Amino acid sequence: MKKSQAAVSNRRSLRRLSWSNYMKRYGTLYLLLLLPMAFFIVFRYLPMAYITMAFKQNNIIKPLFEVPWAKNNGMEWFIKAFKNRDFLFAIKNTITLNLLDLVVGFPAPILIALLLNELTHNGFKRVTQTIIYLPHFLSWIIISGLALRLLAPTDGLINILLAKVGIEPIPFLNKPNWWTGTYVALGIWKEAGWNTIIYLAAMTSISPELYEAAAVDGANRLRRIWHVTLPGLRSTIITLLIMNLGRILGSEFDRPYALSNKLVTSASNVISIFVYQNGIKGSQFSLTTAVGLFQSVIGVFFLLGANKLAKNFGERGVW
User: Fold this and answer.
1) Alpha-carbon Rg of the chain, whole angstroms?
2) Which residues pair with 69 in a beta bridge?
């Protein structure tokens, strides 16, 4: 009996000692985690209580728990949103622009990364990479100002050059179809270089022996890209594609708002602008909370569906 008690006490003391040693070794890291954890709790999780505004009457003066529930079993604002033509147009524009960004913009950094990876002159490669990812650091306000001056239909530099070769001025930012193409092109120019970094980093994990074996087997450069580089990037491509599909109904605010004007509102009014105009300007906070919640739920379903599809094709997915 005494031996068993002594053994139990020894195990407890060893546990205390190992825990003490563990905290001495990693305690500083836990202390460093306190600040980001506090940030996420205060600014990410506590505000989630206000999601219930989507199901309550529009009142930001009273405390949230005192505000009565909305009509139609709390679904008043969802019904009102889907009866609003501007909201339906905003959904259509958001999906259209995001799909174009996905179809046209998603392959762009992959192609740039493949081209950069094939360059043998390291100096030229570094300079090129620096130049193409510098636009990422410009705000959309700066880019919209540049676009307005360069693409103006009468005195813009691009149209002046086109006029000199006998081509009619192109309304890049004044007609909905041209505006959509310009919107997508500017997005690729701004972000493709930055996203290239991810693919270049993934390429470093591909074994050089695979390229050597492919070259011995007689594969030319294009064959090596197709059979070695792209399969090595497949998991990275799938992961980023899943994340982009999760944002298919999400929308930036600064990009369409900065590039928009009254002539192209039929193409530029996306959900984020609808929320701004109706929520902040129109003080319909419950309505726009309902719209934001709808966006988030649909985004989660897209994310889950894309992740499931990736697993069906034998990929790991996001989780």
Assistant:
1) 27
2) 56
Render pLDDT for 12-56 as a digit per residue (tens, 0 to 9).
Answer: 655 665 777 877 888 888 889 999 999 999 998 888 888 888 999
In this structure, the answer to whether residues 72 and 9 fall within a common structural domain is no
Q: For residue 228, what are its two tokens?
A: 């070695």
DSSP string, 137-162: GS-HHHHHHHHHHHS-TTT-HHHHHH
Q: Which residues pair with 56 in a beta bridge?
A: 69
Three-state SS at 56: strand
Helix or strand or coil: residue 69? strand
- 280 and 142 fall within a common domain: yes
Query: How many structural domains is the chain composed of?
Result: 2
How many helices (H) and strands (E) would you count in the chain?
15, 0
CA-CA distances (angstroms) from residue 170 to 166, 189, 257, 265? 12, 19, 21, 18
Q: What is the pLDDT of residues 115-162, one digit of tens each?
A: 988 888 888 888 888 899 899 999 999 999 999 889 988 888 999 999
Say if residue 178 is in the same domain as residue 104. yes
In this structure, are residues 238 and 315 in contact, taking their beta carbons and an 8 Å threshold? Answer: yes
| Whether the Cβ atoms of residue 273 and residue 281 lie closer than 8 Å to each other | no
The residue behind tokens 């930012």 is 173
On whether both 50 and 167 belong to a single domain, the answer is no
Give yes or no: residues 89 and 46 share one domain: no
The closest of 293, 205, 191 to 244, measured between CA atoms, is 191
pTM above 0.70, yes or no: yes
- Is 95 a domain residue? yes
CA quadruple 78, 51, 287, 254: dihedral positive or negative?
Answer: negative
